[in-house]
Amino acid sequence: MTAEPSTAQHLFDGVPFEPGAAKNDPILVADGVRRAFGGLVAVDVDHLEVQRGAITALIGPNGAGKTTFFNLLTNFDEPDTGSRLFEGNDLAGVSAYKVANLGMVRTFQLTKSLSKMTVIDNMCLGGTGQTGESFFKALFPFLWRRQEAEITERADALLERFKLSHMRDEFAGTLSGGQRKLLEMARALMVKPNMVMLDEPMAGVNPALKQSLLDHVKGLRDEGMTVLFVEHDMDMVQEISDWVVVMAEGRIIAEGPPESIASNQAVIDAYLGAHHDSALDLEAD
Amino acid sequence: MGGVQLVATFARARRGVLAVVVAFLVLLGLGSNGPVSAQEEGGEVKGSLVQKNEEGERVGVPSVTFRAFDESGAEVASTTTGEDGAWSMVVPEGTYDILLDVETLPDGVALRNPDKNPAQVTLIDGSSKSTLFPLGEPEESSAGGNTVIQLIVDGLKLGLIIAMCAIGLSLIYGTTGLTNFAHGEAVTFGAVMAYLLNNAGVFGVQLPLIPATIIVVVICGGVGGLFNRTVWRPMRRRGASLVAALVVSIGFSIFFRYVILFTFGGRAKRLRDYQIQEQWDLGLFRLAPKDLVLMIISIAVLVGVASALQLTRMGKAMRAVSDNRDLAESTGIDVERVISLVWIFGSALAGLGGVLFGLTESINWEMGFRILLLMFAGVTLGGLGTAYGALFGSIIVGLFIQLSTLIIPTDMKNVGALLMLIVILLIRPQGLFGRRERIG
Amino acid sequence: MDWGAIIQNSFRGFIGEPFIYFSLAAMGLNMHYGYTGLLNFGQAVFMAAGAYGLSMAVVTLGLNFWWGLLLGIVVFPLLLALIMGVPTLRLRADYLAIVTIAASEMFRIIARSPSLDRWTGSSDGLTAFANTFYDFNPFDKQKRYFFGLFIGNQMWVVLIGWIVLSIVVLIVWMTMRSPWGRVLRAIREDEDAARSLGKNAYWFKMQSLMIGGMFGALGGMFRAIGTQSAQPQNFITDVTFFAWVALILGGAAKVGGPIAGAAILYGILNFTDVFLRQLVENGYVPESVMDGTQVGQVRFMLIGLGLILLAIYRPQGIFGTKEEMALDDR
Ligand SMILES: Nc1ncnc2c1ncn2[C@@H]1O[C@H](COP(=O)(O)OP(=O)(O)OP(=O)(O)O)[C@@H](O)[C@H]1O
Ligand SMILES: [Mg+2]
Asked: CB contact, 8 Å: C303 with chain B?
């Protein structure tokens, strides 16, 4: 890793700074995705492409529809209309677990740590293709013991990186809110995904650890992983994202590199209400 | 919450459970029950010989002789029926022919299936077999008029009663998230109380059914309110999980049911008033006057409830709490008061439903539990937690049950409704009026 | 009062036939609820599947005993799990609860319907289908065994029951320490989390429903074999809650919990049963207050009361601690 802040902005060469812009090598494409709850249209995205190998931030005011959009992309919820393609696979009618197995793993805004299981069990659960997950093979430990050891080893390494090793054998329910966020992120990485979707991963994590996690996320990108994350902290968005997508009232209103966003009029309007003409100081958010 | 306070709520919950149990026992400690013998050595073959009298009631046929012959043809036992038509013989393990001695039948009474006499039974030690010898002409399936329309009218009647019972279930679910399995016992309780007041009487006075019903509705509402205050409110305060609450409600359901069985007995009973009524023949269908009154009362009550929910402050508050409890709380609605009223009204309606059901059919210790499952079907069809959904769902279930008798045997008609419950979950789990939930 | 009989019967409750039937049923519920979080309130129907699978195969269809075992332990429970699971396992937990309890009621109606008498024997049920089982009985029918608690045939049922129970315990113990068990526990904690990690929660829940149902079917089948009769009233809705009380007593999500629970439960039930009967028979309790049949009803009241008190005061079971899996987690 270089000392200079690494970026992947070169991946976006020639991409216009406008909503729905086509990317050079999209890993995920959403088209015409719409979801209404009763009368409320929570998500109405005309078109969005996510660049492979980059860190893309999804920002927007509370209630903009970010989480709902995440649910739609990962098939935890079904859109009323529209299509989603992940690495060329149409996601229509694909179960959420299969989406994860295709290589797109998400975390949840409200953490879902498995409270009455130990931290290490939480982690090992993330391992894919486990032989011991078949009922009959489970009865014969010699069939899966070796694989289990490998998975445990990988889990321990990740716990180390996320500063959770000392909690290894505690129940996940005893973790603090920030630690749960960390555990959930680490657990998602156990799946070895091509793309991770993090819904406010850093909310409640202390600044020092946040910094090291940022580096870690960049490391993931440098290994070729695609990251899409929701974040309200503009400092963090500015620091690690290569590209920013802004949502408001269910629509995508702006796209571009982080520098271009803060001065975008549509974004300012969305955050502060229309007819506000000063440059955006999102840090106060 | 401080430790002291926690201990206090625990103590309250404990006292609450006790209070409800005691109150229930006191309320029911009025009935009596006839003994039935239990068999240990050899096997018992038994039955009950009944016929319908002019008024359509089933009455026992006394002094009819039954004989048991073993495989060699030797007679091993004989008995005669008692006043209530019941008979029973104890014989050693083995296979027997049970013969009804037709000579001993009263004049003008004959077996419906003479070719099934004698009947063969196989007995082992400790077992007990009941053998039926139906009397009279084969029963006609249609009651005259147009069968389909008759069934629709019957279905509507049943549906209205289910709906009345289900409103409480649905509102309680909506406001507290509890699927209250003990709600069926509120129905039985209403019916049994009506029986006690109407037939057994209090202090020697048999109350006419109408004032009795009013008293029953008040008592049921009161018991529901007490139940909420002493059991459910303390549990909510402690933040007990919904599964724990569910299990507690099942516990109460079983407990109450068997307390009722213990005190009220296992036989079905009928109310004294309005039992025998000439049915009006309205060409397309027949209807007893009491059924018409019953349907009018149900419709009036349901319309009343619907408009109360729609128009009154309390009704709006109930809907608001059902919709989003936290939001309702933050806008200054006294959620606990709303829940308390939901319990009172829901239980009162269930009690009324019980009386009405007892009026059309008969009263027995597990009627509420049977109806509870039909309520579930109705509520699920309408969408869990929506009051109007429960109403329409229940009526559809009632219609479905009666109409299904066109295809399946009458004694299995409820199976159709329960199957429908499963099918609805397959195709539209949120019900007709429900909506999907939030994830993430 | 015959205190010897009271003590003997209570002890018999700890290890005897009902203990075996309900341990097995509660082991199944533990798989369902304790490890997977499924609310199955229709375990009695799975028990009935075992009982009727065997008896219908032998009596109605005229197959031999071994086909009966296959039908009762495998085919019927699997079909039942599919029927109840397919519509509900994608939905919130209370839907399975409602459907399973509805299935119990459907079973009762169907099994008692005279119109199906040819198949099910209606209210009287089916009898004399387990002769093959007793043909293998090495014990002397006339003698008493195990401190005089069981006569020969009973001893045979109880012995095979203990063996089957041990095998079931071993299966649960093995699988719950495996990745398979880990997925189940994850689903119990949070199904969406499990799905987000690529686990087919639906299918795992279905497996759990099936396997727990088969344990229940084994319990029901023993009940049928033990009495040589399969009767509807032995598998009514309320029977499920005997198994639930056993489960909560012993503590959910503990391998031995259901066994401890069932032993204690039947110790208590047999004690009260015999005690009350003796009171009635010896005239300590007048007929007007309680008679012989009503003693049987008291045991259901105790079950109801047990559920209430356990769920409120001891949701983690009598041996458990607050930190472990408890009834009031969700
Ligand atoms: N299941 C649901 N039923 C009804 N409305 C819903 C549901 N899920 C989301 N909504 C609504 O959709 C809108 C978008 O919600 P969403 O959670 O996607 O916002 P968000 O952008 O993630 O907000 P935040 O930044 O606060 O997390 C909100 O108005 C919300 O109330
Ligand atoms: Mg969100």
From this structure: yes
